[in-house]
Amino acid sequence: MNRSFGLGGLFIPFIMFLFSWKLLIGKHLLPPAKTLRLSLFAMLFIPLFIGFFFHEKQEDLGKILITCNDNLVGVYGVFVTRWCIFTLGWFGSLLLILIIAGSSFIFNFNPKLEIASLDVGHRFAIQKARVASLGGC
């Protein structure tokens, strides 16, 4: 595990199991496209997430050390964490992780974001109808 994707590499046997189940039984256990999309996302995102929150930057040597077990992060996680920290900095890497996590959540689960909708005209029309029904101006 420490020579590949780390903890995210556990999704490879999961994907292989699901596709072999389809070959043997003839039915899908889970929706294949969504399962593959979420598994690939988790395989690439989990090592970056763990590496970012468990790294230590040594200013005098110009190195980044991962303080957790290398098996959790793998070579991919170490490389991506170092690249993000050196290229984007700590705050930029944090923003990148938050943007990737938020956008993938919205893309994969499609939550109803009525609070964040910008349909001001519709809200104004509803408010105006309420005022009119109450006998206001």
Please explain how this structure is put together:
The model has no long low-confidence stretch (mean pLDDT 84). The protein is flat. A two-stranded antiparallel sheet has the order 1-2. 14% of the residues are buried. The chain is mainly alpha-helical and 137 residues long. It has one domain. The longest helix has 40 residues. The protein is 66% helix and 6% strand.
- Mean pLDDT, to the nearest integer, reads 84
In terms of quaternary structure, what is this?
Answer: single chain
Shape: flat
Give the strand tally: 2
Distance between the termini: 70 Å
List the secondary-structure elements in sequence, H or E: HHEEHH
Rounded to an integer in angstroms, the radius of gyration calculated over CA atoms is: 23 Å
- Unreliable residue stretches: none
Explain the layout of strands and helices.
Elements: H1 11-25, H2 32-53, E1 55-58, E2 63-66, H3 70-109, H4 120-133
Antiparallel strand pairs: 1-2
Helix pairs in contact: 1-2, 2-3
Brief write-up:
The chain is mainly alpha-helical. The protein contains 4 helices and 2 strands, in the order ααββαα. The mean pLDDT is 84.
Keywords for this entry:
single chain; 137 residues; mainly alpha; two-stranded antiparallel ribbon; 4 helices; 2 strands
